[in-house]
């Protein structure tokens, strides 16, 4: 076990299906020792199983050289060579995310990755959204938190099938966690899937989950300059929701300034003002979801 | 601290490519706008690499400056931060460099 690495620790990632109450452990991405095919730098393609790295698995390859054999003049037993790799560090997660995306697309399912700081109101937004969409396409939810199934329980009570992922020490969901959660959910064709990421505006920006769009939430209690402080996440957003507008009468928050900052960071994103508590602004949010869902249907892969 | 996950991914990819050979050097490209802190990766790498073929490898990180092309005037301009825009005042641009997060190459010991 790696003493330092967050991708494995005592606090393992677990997945709880709130429909069946069955909990399963998800091994860290790097430990998943499934056989797979890949290309080496020298160009040969083959499939094999391997496990190394954070699990501190030790190889039994013997690199011992006593140098007493010769190849003509000199007797070097080893020499160095450079392998051009030219691979994205995130290739593994990106590949899994692409598979999720293709799987979802083939079933005309709209998947949205919902991200924000802890406490911006993601879960309450979903509770109201589930209620408002009743009678429409079925809604499914993947809930991500470091610990507890509290949010998953709230979503279940709101009426949507939900899987709760607890990342333990981890600070973000990855594509493999979402793949497993999707398998648990038994998603139906044409459904809506909301993936509520771990509350964090930094790490989830780098890890593609395979959804169609990132919806980034912030609330009027967090300051007008939230978007400037976390530009990575807000630049990755297709839609930005400014939540808790019901609190505006009690605050010195300038909506105008907040919106000016949003367009500075991400001029292409759409921004909507909403209150998950009162439902203010929900018409536009629900319209946006319906339009995206329609888009997911018409642009589905064959 | 996503650099831990990043370091894990690096060690994983390096070990795959090395295929049992001892790794002496790993060269990375990290864009200055990638959202990944090189220092944090360098800090995590030796810990994560312990017990793998990359455990004695030195880590070379090439940082790449941010460059974008303005979609209005077509100029290329330096983007030291994510909030830098073209001097012409237009807000939309294509990021050309600075987002890199790549393993460039590795140096391994070949056994004769």
What do these coordinates show?
- Chain A is of the alpha/beta class and 302 residues long.
- Chain A has a domain at 91-215 and 282-298: Rossmann fold.
- Chain A is built from 8 helices and 12 strands.
- Chain A has helices spanning 91-106, 122-132, 150-158, 175-185, 226-229, 231-235, 255-265, 282-298, and strands at 13-17, 22-26, 36-39, 45-48, 78-88, 110-115, 139-145, 162-166, 192-196, 213-219, 239-243, 270-273.
- In chain A, strand 7, helix 3 and strand 8 form a beta-alpha-beta unit.
- The longest helix of chain A has 17 residues, at 282-298.
- Chain A is globular, with a radius of gyration of 23 Å.
- The two termini of chain A are 43 Å apart.
- Chain B is an alpha+beta fold.
- Chain B has a domain at 3-65 and 97-108: hypothetical protein PF0899 fold (2-Layer Sandwich), CATH 3.30.2320.
- Chain B is 25% helix and 35% strand.
- In chain B, the strands form 2 sheets. Chain B has a 3-stranded mixed sheet with strand order 2-1-6, covered by helices on one side. In chain B, strands 4-3-5 form a 3-stranded antiparallel sheet, with no helix packed on it.
- In chain B, helix 1 packs across helix 2.
- The N and C termini of chain B lie far apart (41 Å).
- The mean pLDDT of chain B is 94.
- Chains A and B meet through strand 5, helix 1, helix 6 and helix 7 of A and helix 1, helix 2 and strand 6 of B.
